[in-house]
Amino acid sequence: MEHFDVAIIGLGPAGSALARKLAGKMRVIALDKKCQCGTEGFSKPCGGLLAPDAQRAFIRDGITLPIEVIANPQIFSVKTVDVAARLTRNYQRSYININRHAFDLWMKSLIPDVVTVHHDTLCRKVWREGELWHVLFQVNGEEQHITARWLVGADGANSLVRRHLYPDHQIRKYVAIQQWFPEAHAVPFYSCIFDNAVTDCYSWSISKDGYFIFGGAYPMKDGQARFEALKAKMTDFAFHFGEPVKSEKCTVLFPSRWGDFVCGKENAFLIGEAAGFISASSLEGISYALDSAEILSNMLLNEPNNANRAYWCATRKLRFKLYSKIIKSRCLTSPALRKWIMQSGIAHIPQNHSEDYPTRFTSPTSRM
């Protein structure tokens, strides 16, 4: 039974960034359910937009994006739709359109070989005995058992580590559903859609590499029916669908109170979405994944004997920022306030061409 300084469960952007930052400074093992090749195995359903805060994290680390993770086209505005009020507005946004699965694999590829990484791996159980954390996982059909001084949950919305640390903790969850269609719009666009009759969260669309992705976050009970109902409504707003070529689902967290942010205890830590670090106003989580990984790496390296307390204090600014997103979400999902904001025309950029674009088929690329 091998012993490590740090065991990281999950290698999305948060886990990969942490493993890279600790490499060579601590003995690290990282477990991930994705394969490190092509499109095989698990892939994260995600619209795939890199927000400015995530871009700043890469600037701080001196990292540039390779061309293979960047998707086409790059879009500079979000088309915001209020279905009930039948309003459409365009707001400037500085996102980078990326292929999310390729991005995740690239982030993993940056982890130095000195880190022990197990791909296509299922973490089955974690528990604490004395001063050590025990991790039981399955790789290549065989069970393995390791111990570590510190345990890190970077395993997303359904975090095994969070459930172990906080068995009674409840946070609002939605089912995120999205479908891929051959692109049929003359002018590609990114959209944010609000319809309180369908969901008290929001829906989205994005054009990417010859495909049109339409998705949203819906109540867990009847999410699929709500998704289909919204699709039917969107034809009135010049959305063109056709037959889907791929459908995806996953659970997404929706923090709605200060207590939804949990950082860990007893030499165990949570980063990224596992900690509740995801924007309630946009469901964007990559930037908070990168920021929380950076904060935790600094605490483990500089405050090892008081790391839990140090991490909790150091993430205070991040948690306040995320709480402001909760307040913003309440404004955006309020029909009356949202309608007033959109009718005011604040920050709206009118377009010179018609919103009702003619249908045009664009042949999809082979990459999805």
Question: In terms of per-residue confidence, which ranges show pLDDT below 50 for 5 or more consecutive residues?
Answer: 354-368
Residues in helices, as a percent range: 25-40%
Give the integer mean of the pLDDT values.
92
Class by SSE composition: alpha/beta
Structural Rg: 21 Å
List the secondary-structure elements in sequence, H or E.
EHEEHEEEHEEEEHEEEEHEEHHHH
Number of DSSP helical runs = 9
Number of strands: 16
The span between the termini is 40 Å
Relative strand content: 25-35%
| Coarse shape | globular
Describe the largest sheet: 7 strands, mixed
What features would you highlight for this structure?
FAD/NAD-bd_sf, 368 residues, globular, Geranylgeranyl_reductase, FAD-bd, 27% strand, seven-stranded mixed beta sheet, alpha/beta
Structure description:
This protein is α/β, with parallel strands linked by helices and 368 residues long. The protein contains nine helices and 16 strands. The chain has helices at residues 13-22, 52-61, 100-109, 160-165, 223-234, 286-302, 307-314, 316-332, 335-344, and strands spanning 3-9, 28-31, 49-50, 77-82, 87-92, 96-97, 116-118, 122-129, 132-139, 142-153, 173-182, 190-194, 203-208, 211-218, 246-253, 268-270. The strands form three sheets. Strands 1, 2, 7, 8, 9, 10 and 16 form a seven-stranded mixed β-sheet that branches. Strands 5-4-12-13-14-11-15 form a seven-stranded mixed β-sheet, with helices on both faces. A hairpin with a 2-residue loop joins β13 and β14 (211-218). The longest helix has 17 residues, at 286-302. It is globular. Mean pLDDT is 92; it is low at 354-368. Belongs to the CbrA family. InterPro entries: FAD-bd, FAD/NAD-bd_sf, Geranylgeranyl_reductase. This is Protein CbrA. Residues 134-183 form the FAD-binding domain.
